[in-house]
Amino acid sequence: MESSNKRIAKNTIFLYVRMLLSTCISLYTSRVILNTLGVDDFGIYNVVGGVVAMFSFLNASMSSATSRFLSFEIGREDFVRLHKVFSSAFTVHLLIALCVFVLGETIGLWFLQHKLVLPADRMFAANVIYQVTILMGMLNVIQVPSVALIMSNERMNVYAFVEILNVCLKLLVVFLLLIIPADKLIVYGLLQLLVAILVFMIYVIYSRRTWRECRFKLFWNKKFLKPIFSFSGWDLYGNFSTLVRTQGVSILLNIFFGTVLNAASGIATQVQGAVGAFAGNVLMAVRPQIIKNYAISDYTRMCFLIEKTSIFTTILLLLFTIPLLVETEYVLSLWLGIVPAYTVVLCRYVLLFNLFANLSSVIVTGIHATGRIKRPSIINGTLYLLVLPFSYVAYHWGQEPQIAFAFNVIAVFCGMLFNMWTLHLYVPNFRFVAYFRGVLVKGMLIAFVTYSSSYWLILQLERGFIRLVVITLFSSFCLLLFTYFFVLSNEEKAKVKLNINI
């Protein structure tokens, strides 16, 4: 168990290094690319790429299904079935890639040439970029089984290295773009394709050479494909519901309040993604272990991982969430300069949403391990879809813009409780009441006391950067103190004392 814990810790560190480096490089490259291509060409690249992305929607659910079934067979050490699952997934992803190509070259191409509003003198460049993005989309689909195999075997160092190499190559693309004397948009697209091909080759060759039992082979067997399709189908409903809810709320904001609220919503979404990524990395590292322990019927270890991941990712989120909640206005003005109306309140709602969504994601990982996702997918997906009619009625009655985000928080909280109960029914050792008290109630009490103390402190200090630093340090100290006394077990406290030589 200790080696598993160390592996989780190492993998989490690798993923954090990847995230930090990727974020820093991406922030720089985005600005340079915008300046180099210009607003029009940059917009063309994004809108054309978005058309292809629509046809790759199924890929997200298939990726989740592939990862789950590979981790399950690795946990059972059934390498014959592992080879068949991998070959089945590989065959399916080839078919998805073919579908992306066919849809892209028919409906997508028609949409590009007849529906999108593009400058007439940039149509040739737009068509080149479109073909490039179709090829990139196909490569991304085909490499999914290889990436899933790497993740299921917990080789996060390899994944982190390849993704860091990916963003570094994209940084090189930016510099080459500045010196190559040709159509910048076309050059940018072709260079991006070269990067995608290289990353594809690394993933495929590495997985082929490292796990010989997973050599590529076309394989079609209903016995293996039926559970994969069933899993991905129900997961697709949940993912689709989330997409419809997000885009639907954006459209409602536009209809009732105009583009200013879309800007505020976009900023809130960026904040949500940036903060949520910190907890997401931990879950990514733990996920294969949860599935593998279920596969070998070690439910005690599985539930231990779920509970510990839940409480520690909650504390991790609170380290960022509480300073942002009490200093939202100042942080946004520091970041943006001019803050669109309602941005502050929307950001606060998405930060609350993140806390419950994180717990729900950990629980859902446990449910995914069982493979029985039909019921939770229907309930959660329907809850998310209900946000739209409730929001429409509320806006029609003259409610404030943030009401949709409040409904989001209510929906994810209800979904989280339902997921907890579902896991209680599916996994023998998971106890709903114990989790509710030990994770949810404890986490909410820690959050409430820390937030209240931090809010009292800001009232005593003058607004400014110094106050932000003081609040961040104070809330972090409170959270670490509460974690030590109320979250850590006696054994974990002893290890902490040993490490800091108390």
TrEMBL record:
Keywords linked to the UniProt accession: Cell membrane, Membrane, Transmembrane, Transmembrane helix
TM segment ranges? 12-30, 42-64, 85-112, 124-151, 158-180, 186-206, 309-326, 332-357, 378-397, 403-427, 439-458, 464-487
* Domain of life where this protein originates: Bacteria
Q: Give the main localization category.
A: membrane
Entry annotated with the keyword tRNA-binding? no
Q: Name one Pfam family in it.
A: Polysacc_synt
Q: Name one GO cellular component term.
A: plasma membrane
The record's subcellular location field reads:
Cell membrane
Q: Topologically, how does it sit relative to the membrane? A: Multi-pass membrane protein
Q: Supply the PANTHER family for this chain.
A: PSMA PROTEIN (PTHR30250:SF26), PST FAMILY PREDICTED COLANIC ACID TRANSPORTER (PTHR30250)
Q: What is the official name of this protein in its record?
A: Polysaccharide biosynthesis protein
> Which species expresses this protein natively?
Bacteroides intestinalis
